[in-house]
Amino acid sequence: MIRLAVRVRREHAELVLAELLELAPSGVEEAELEGGVVEYAVYGPPGEVPDLPDLQVAAGDALVEVETTEVADDWADRWRQFHKPVVVGGRLHVRPPWCTPREDLLEVVVDPGQAFGTGAHGTTRLCLELLCELAAEGAGGPASDLGCGSGVLAIAAAKLGLGPVLGVDHERESVTATAENAQANGVDDLVRAERFDLLRGGPAPGAPLVLANLLRPLLLAVARAGFQDAQPRVLVASGLLVHEADEVAGAFAQRHGLHERRRLDDGEWAALLLARPAG
């Protein structure tokens, strides 16, 4: 089995990921490295992993390096061991399908092999924490999930009573994964998914509650383009390094009147709860 790793600069990571998923639709493994570098890895038998020239083109100017290594035949089992359940806000238990459920928590079951986003990444956990807080305050939907990936945020929002939710993503695989995961979690009546290009599609699908777990360039693009259908009363923004949060909060405050009400961080990543003033 071959492991093919592509390392890119963090500020370009989301755009590169979108291109890589075109070459490896079954999903990629993500890891944070030192020096502001993100590593994406794909696995497969020789001849089935993406070609090196295609990867170099996909990564473009963001490319740091590409590395190919052989892995042991038990890689699938070890890959499963990498994905652990996550408990968030004392209410949600986010887990892959092979982990034991918790009867005392709301279950969000996500297959990490389908698309980006399993709940384990810091940005996703921070978003889920803010969702739990909103639910505890009695907030409601409808909601939109911009860059829905595997659908973990949309599914969690629906289970917390913050639906219905429209998830949008540029990648067909993410749209499919969100729909399949919503069905597996029993919320397919509350979660639907559509393709939408946040960079080139104009105003993003709006709703009273907007979830945007995106990297800084896409968040700023959404702030510039605005929203269609409905203007958000509350926006949860993540995918931000701690030092990027002020800029993004300022962009949504200036353009959309959404002001920072709450900020969470884990020392590296930050999430913002932005809200329109009451009255």
Structure description:
The chain is an alpha/beta fold and 279 residues long. The protein has helices at residues 13-23, 52-59, 75-82, 122-136, 152-159, 172-184, 216-225, 245-256, and strands at residues 2-9, 29-33, 37-44, 63-70, 86-88, 92-95, 106-109, 143-146, 165-169, 191-195, 204-205, 209-213, 227-228, 234-241, 259-265, 269-275. It folds into two domains: 2-78, Alpha-Beta Plaits; 83-275, Rossmann fold, CATH 3.40.50. The strands form four sheets. Strands 10-9-8-12-14-16-15 form a seven-stranded mixed beta sheet. A four-stranded antiparallel beta sheet has the order 2-3-1-4. α1 (13-23) packs antiparallel against α2 and α7 packs parallel to α8. The radius of gyration is 18 Å and the shape is globular. The termini are far apart.
Q: Which topology of the largest domain does CATH recognise?
A: Rossmann fold
The name of the CATH architecture of the largest domain is: 3-Layer(aba) Sandwich
Strand content: 25-35%
CATH class of the largest domain: Alpha Beta
**Number of extended strands:** 16
First-last Cα distance: 59 Å
Residue-averaged pLDDT:
85
Give the strand line-up of the largest sheet. Answer: 10-9-8-12-14-16-15
Whole-number count of domains: 2
Please name the fourth-level CATH homologous superfamily of the largest domain. Answer: Vaccinia Virus protein VP39
Structural class: alpha/beta
The SSE string, one letter per element, is EHEEHEHEEEHEHEHEEEHEEHEE
Please outline the major beta sheet: 7 strands, mixed
Cα-based radius of gyration, to the nearest Å: 18 Å
Shape: globular
